[in-house]
Design a protein that fits this description.
This protein is α+β, with helices and mostly antiparallel strands. The chain has 19 helices and eleven strands. The strands form three sheets. It has a four-stranded antiparallel beta sheet with strand order 4-5-6-7. Strands 8-9-10-11 form a four-stranded antiparallel beta sheet, sandwiched between helices. A hairpin with a 2-residue loop joins β8 and β9. The radius of gyration is 29 Å and the shape is globular.
Length: 464
């Protein structure tokens, strides 16, 4: 009969201990790369909670928002800001722009008047010159009254430590699974699209507002006449590309780069919440509480050192099945102050289109619509077959995915010629685009060359 086991036998050989530890490590690593049922259920519940909040149109709690923002400023080592609430980002930016223009130095106004009356053949160039003169003075006025921009600093203060701990705790493979489950990247793309659309609209409206505020301060009738013409161009969206550039030049550094958008913060709160509740990442509870309160109780935020501007949530928010902002025959996004937008699958469209369902859209609108993105929406909504039928289009020439169409029903009032359209079908997306081309072009290939500034489509295909 064998006696008591030796210490070595009890512990096992060094190799067996090493093998055991290695096996445990491999088992842990394999488990760490997959979600168990409990984790999946917790992630699903957390995701649902934050998605419901992202779609909320309930009024925010101003007292809670104020307390949370003041505490965030305290964490940054800043004094309590003056916190002001607006019904929408539109009313907030209009109020700011109005105040800034009113306080511009009279000498600068005189310089602008001299520059404007010198005359430009290109109205777009005149707009660019006008905004170029105003950008730096307005930015200085903004910093003088509101202080430095703090959006990035608030973000870093509240989330950097937790983000670092989550990165250490959750393997990359598992993070990818979670991102797919909660559609993190898709939600980021939807957020970016919405913000881009909002910015484009606000760009046009705020530049119009800027001109309206400048006109009463001008002395010469010629200057006022020029500004009125620029205002008309903006209202008709005939300078949409220029407006976008002006927005990047003027509004982006003033406002957009210093903004906290609720959908973006809610999406991040969703991810951070998963790190805290599902994977037990340790983090200062107060910081996490403040981040949640801001995400839950604020709309769009423009945080400056002296003043923090907070916008209320929209009172209406409609989405399609893919969670893109969308409505047919009605506004998709509306705020309490009356500011509203018609969006068709994420693209802002004018009221005259948006207030009608797509089946009531008219093919002739394509002939006068200048915005390429809106034209694409009209094409998709009306349908190519109905366009050909209603406009009585006939095929003149085809080349690969391009078709040159002639519409005899509509005669251009300037040259008395029929309207010609080049229809282009994108091979990768299937989107149909149509652009108007000169009537003296009689082949699809020449039409493509004209659109590409003289570059032959064969050469263009090779270079791209």
């Amino acid at each position: 009969m064998r006696g008591e086991l030796t210490l070595s036998e009890k512990l096992g050989s060094p190799n067996s201990l090493l093998d055991s530890k290695k096996a445990e490590a491999i088992m842990w690593w394999n488990q760490a790369k997959t979600l168990n049922d409990k984790q999946k259920n917790l992630i699903s519940a957390t995701n649902k909670k934050w998605r419901l909040l992202a779609d909320s149109t309930q009024p925010i709690n101003q007292d809670t928002a104020t307390s949370a923002l003041k505490y965030a400023y305290k964490l940054m080592g800043k004094a309590e800001p003056f916190i002001v609430f607006f019904d929408s980002p539109h009313s907030a930016l209009v109020a700011l722009t109005t105040q800034l223009v009113q306080e511009l130095d009279s000498q600068l106004i005189q310089q602008i008047e001299i520059q404007t009356t010198q005359g430009f053949n290109n109205e777009g160039e005149l707009l660019r010159q006008l905004i170029g003169q105003l950008t730096i003075p307005l930015k200085k006025q903004l910093e003088k009254h509101l202080g430095t921009q703090l959006a990035s600093q608030i973000d870093r203060t509240l989330t950097n430590e937790l983000n670092s701990k989550i990165d250490l705790k959750i393997p990359t493979e598992l993070k990818s699974q979670i991102f797919q489950t909660i559609e993190y990247e898709e939600e980021e793309q939807r957020h970016s699209q919405l913000v881009s659309q909002l910015e484009n609209q606000l760009n046009s409206q705020l530049v119009q507002r800027l001109i309206q505020q400048l006109k009463p301060r001008m002395q010469h009738s010629r200057t006022i006449k020029i500004l009125t013409r620029l205002e008309e161009l903006l209202q008709k969206q005939e300078s949409s590309l220029m407006v976008g550039r002006l927005g990047n030049l003027f509004l982006k550094p003033l406002f957009y780069t210093n903004s906290i958008h609720p959908i973006q913060w809610i999406n991040r709160a969703n991810w951070l919440d998963i790190g805290m509740s599902v994977f037990k990442c340790a983090y200062p509870q107060k910081n996490w509480e403040i981040f949640q309160l801001i995400a839950s109780n604020c709309g769009w935020i423009f945080p400056f050192e002296k003043t923090c501007i907070v916008c209320h949530r929209p009172i209406k928010l409609s989405r399609n099945r893919n969670r893109t902002i969308h409505a047919e025959g009605d506004v998709a996004l509306a705020f309490a102050d009356g500011y509203s937008l018609y969006l068709h699958h994420g693209v802002v469209i004018p009221k005259k289109y948006g207030q009608l369902p797509p089946e009531a859209w008219q093919a002739e609108w394509l002939l006068t619509e200048h915005n390429a993105e809106v034209r694409r929406v009209l094409l998709e909504g009306i349908g190519y077959d109905r366009i050909c039928q209603e406009l009585e289009a006939t095929t003149v020439s085809s080349w690969r995915e391009y078709t040159l169409l002639r519409i005899d029903k509509f005669i251009d009032h300037d040259d008395g010629m029929p309207v010609f359209l080049l229809k282009m079908t994108c091979p990768s997306t299937g989107f149909i685009h149509a652009l108007r081309v000169p009537p003296d072009i009689q082949s699809a290939r020449n039409a493509i060359r004209w659109i590409n500034w003289g570059v032959d489509p064969e050469r263009f295909a090779i270079e791209s």
